[in-house]
Amino acid sequence: MTSSYLILATLAMAGVTFITRALPALIPRKLLDTPWLHRLNESLPLSVMVLLILTSLSYKDVSASTGLNSAELHLLLAQIGALISVLLIYHLSRQLLISMIVGIAALNALLWLFDGTLG
Question: Is the pTM here over 0.70, yes or no?
Answer without folding.
Answer: no
